[in-house]
Amino acid sequence: MWKKRILAIIILLLGVGIAFFVFKSEPKLNKNFENQSSFFKHSPFRLGLDLSGGSHLVYKADVSGIQSGQVSDSMSALRDVIERRVNLFGVSEPVVQVQEGGFTSGGDEKLIVDLPGITDVEKATAMIGQTPLLEFKIEAPADAPRQVKVDKDGTATLDAGPQFVSTELSGRYLKKATLEFDQNTREPKVGLQFDETGTKLFAQITKDNVGKIIAIYLDGAPISAPVVREEITGGTAEISGSFTPTEAKQLVGRLNSGALPVPITLLSRQTIGASLGDNAVAAGVKATILGFLFIALFLILWYRLPGFIAVISLCIYISIILTLFKLLPVTLTAAGIAGFIISIGIAVDANVLIFERVKEELRSSRTIADSVSVGFSRAWFSIRDSNISSIITATILFWFGTSLIKGFALTLGMGVLVSMLSAITITRIFLSGISFLGEGKVARFLFSSGISK
Amino acid sequence: MFIINNKKIFIWISIVLVVLSLSLVFIFPPKIGIDFKGGALTEVLYKSVRPTQADLEIAFKSSTLGSILLQPTGDLGYIIKSRDLNEAEHNLLLKTLSLNDKNFLDEKSFNSIGPSVGRELTKKAIIAIILVSLGIICFIAFAFRKVSKPVSSWKYGFMAVVSLLHDVTIPIGLFAILSHYFGAEIDTLFVVAILTILGLSVSDTIVIFDRIRENLRNQVAIAKVNFNEIVGKSLEQSYVRSICTSLTVILVLLSLFFFGPESTKYFALMLTVGMFFGTYSSIFLASPLLVWINELQQKNKK
């Protein structure tokens, strides 16, 4: 008997511990949040775009020019490129994902980009679509025609500086770019490493142009014009313009992200203002708390002592689910919160089925302890059967849904699974833990339910 | 036993409800949202004064944005429905709404969906509906594989499916009213609501059928089984728990409807109605139908 009571106390303490974690890791609940250890700090709820505000972009990738076997490779390359660009944009926790063009998605390969907190879509789409153009130009022969610039007032000026002509070498042959710092001046510079073809081209160009200038152009504008001292065969070069460290870092990022492997077009766009999201969160929290209170009230009034125990196990269930939301993490949307709220209602179902059964067994004049154990084992089949259908629905919705539906399916499905476990095991342990109440009239009253008797 | 003895009345009530819902859908066909047909939805909030709808309509007439539907929201806001817009057209829309920057406004949300995305979503929704229905029918068939006397197990399954159809038709009828009078549109959440009702309401029917199954098994020894009595007894034993389990879900759904986020209001309302009729049908429709079909069977034998 003592074993069961100790077990009940351990479960209760574990539940309090989990609830404590949820409380501690939530900045709005914990006044002392700033001083917490990083474990608590790094587990906030992850809010979807409709709650946090931000932009949701869907691109269509044109893979018609790609061999069918290489589509998924180029799509993941595309995702990497876009992800790097988005990260460069300074977005916190962007989500870039490929949606395969199976028969469910109309045959198009798609790229979905979620940018939390970014509502200036124009800027974002420009950034995503931008490809850095890196060119290496050499001095034109002295007899080449010179460019003449004519001003508005009619005076013509001859461009006296050296003329440059394009070479074959471009950002296409770049293997990678790195951020470096000059050892003497501590100025940031960008190191370039060419691939095999690029190395050969660069060696040829430097060999032919010793003593002359090679100009490096970025997006059509010269950014650096070093003089070649000797042939460079190692395939490395560096750009040492007058960068700020941030500029140099951005350039490295843009060069590394390279050109898009496949052309993309914007299909759909969604922007949600932050205020709308905040209101939705507040409403969701309010609905959850009130819904919980209604259920708690109903359980205690109708099922008395077992109802009270069900409320405790419901609290533990809610703590477990919220912790899972934080740790997995699950991205919460308005639909996801709805799924969670419904799962609270369903979580109690198992307890209701058990208590009704226990009540029935009590009527057939069993002892309380017997009724509890028989009630649990007999109710199990209806609990299992009645939850399977919800799990089927949630699973299919999860596989076929858009991100919005996925959020709902995930919270509902998780809720049903976890609640089956918590409602049955936790309530059972608690109910056996309080068997010391005996079989007296008071105990029987506490264990019966409903309005009658 | 009251329900079983008066089964014809209850079956008729359900038939009337279903016919009423279906005719509502035909009289007020629900509008289809931009999720499925493509288009753009913009919500703006003016800083101090809201221009009149007529002024804005005149302003939009001269623009190239096509037909625009303005819908006032709150004291200072509008919801604007249009065809799907690219970035330049989106800016033009905002400029027109501000009547060339004379009225300051905040854009609260903007959603533009291309027609191809809409078609894709429609396809996905249809596949999801088919799969969920198949999954649930398979589950029902599995759940009732063992009981075959005196009513064969596929009939339990069939009755469960009939009551499911009843449970989704009524919320759809309600949605037709919401669509007609409050501008609700069929979107992805609508489809999710329908599928969730399928999942939730079948579980109620299962709880009661489960009890019938258990009582039948216990009475196998008795030679003459009175099926009507067993169903009646099973109903009496299980209707309280059936109502209680639904009540807990309805309580949270109502709190979601009254206090929850704006975007899930209709969703919560549809689920509430679906849940309510799901419980109603498992007590007042599925079991009476089961008895009724058994009686037909007996008559045919004679």
Explain what the structure shows.
The complex is a heterodimer of chains A (453) and B (302). In chain A, a hairpin with a 2-residue loop joins strand 11 (214-218) and strand 12. Chain A has 12 helices and 15 strands. Chain A has 3 domains: 2-45 and 273-447, Multidrug efflux transporter AcrB transmembrane fold (Up-down Bundle), CATH 1.20.1640.10; 54-131 and 262-271, Alpha-Beta Plaits (2-Layer Sandwich); 134-143 and 161-257, Gyrase A, domain 2, CATH 3.30.1360.200. In chain A, helix 1 packs antiparallel against helix 8. With 453 residues, chain A is of the alpha+beta class. Chain B has 302 residues and is of the alpha+beta class. Chain B has 2 domains: 2-34 and 116-301, Multidrug efflux transporter AcrB transmembrane domain (Multidrug efflux transporter AcrB transmembrane fold, Up-down Bundle); 39-113, Alpha-Beta Plaits (2-Layer Sandwich). Chain B has helices at 2-5, 7-27, 34-37, 53-61, 87-97, 115-143, 153-182, 188-218, 227-259, 265-301; strands at 31-32, 39-46, 69-73, 77-82, 105-113, 185-186. In chain B, a hairpin with a 3-residue loop joins strand 3 (69-73) and strand 4. The radius of gyration of chain B is 25 Å and the shape is elongated. The mean pLDDT of chain B is 85. Chains A and B meet through helix 5, strand 14, helix 8, helix 9 and helix 10 of A and strand 5, helix 6, helix 8, helix 9 and helix 10 of B.
